[in-house]
């Protein structure tokens, strides 16, 4: 299935770009380190030292990898430094985080080539890209604002599998190049849920060991790429397969929709329980467990939240799909003629539009 994904991206001319940042603090503070690794099978593989070394640790077909440190233009929060180990002295002589040479790399991948046959906008991938790296990049000017790029979030994916399909469905799938055979991976015996709290844990669940290198943006980029490749093969029956003659753009859209689906019975932003055959109720917040129309002001407040993840802890968002569910739940319900009393006057609220 990894190769099927690469084939679809080739047919649609969309690069697959794994990305990760280390930042100067929480909530989208400027980056102190970036890393990208991308797959463009129609292009020649880059042979610089970073790409050649990264290719040894990546799923097949890696075209290019790069990493570098950046000057955030301000202090680095001590708690952030304790995580990534990068000090102000380490980045004093590095390019500024908003250097056009840095931002243009991300922007060019985001907007794609021209209409005469160049590359289309890429598919972004990585661990927690939906809730962190993408909204941060938009706030930094690396990516277009207020757009919903195509993504594959391995954190979102593994947490859903931990709830809905914790055990691999194809445990005899071929081993990923350079790693032990699948039957020896811990997820076969224990499921993926006990390991789902971190990227290193998920890697251990699939391959039996944590990543060889566990610190730094590039290490996380390559680990998340291996995790995606492993999940695509180990849970292969869940993903839409090859359909002869199918439009590649439609096939890619179907695959991405499945990879990014929320856990069963919950909206993708976590607001609403959507169990089939059961009335919609709030899944979290002050009205948890109540009907969507129990508190109209609260429902409207949720619907007015940002449409995309904000990248800021504690600041929620509301997807377009959830907005539609809320709008339907708040729409006035008018009884049909068959349900009205036969005798007596008809109330004004019962008159159909």
Polypeptide structure, described:
35% of the residues lie in helices and 10% in strands. It is α/β, with parallel strands linked by helices. Helix 5 (129-140) links the parallel strand 4 and strand 5 (150-153). Helix 1 crosses helix 10 and helix 11 runs antiparallel to helix 12.
Summarize this structure briefly.
The chain has 353 residues and is α/β, with parallel strands linked by helices. It has 12 helices and 7 strands.
Strand content: 5-15%
Strand order of the largest sheet: 3-2-1-4-5
- Give the radius of gyration: 23 Å
Outline, from the CA principal axes?
Answer: globular
What structural class is derived from the secondary structure elements?
alpha/beta
Cα end-to-end separation: 51 Å
The biggest beta sheet is recorded as: 5 strands, mixed
Overall pLDDT confidence = 89
- Percent of residues in helices comes to 25-40%
Instruction: Please provide the ordered H/E string of secondary-structure elements.
Output: HEEHEHHEHEHHHHHEEHH
Number of helices: 12
Query: What is the number of strand segments?
Result: 7
Low-confidence regions: 337-353
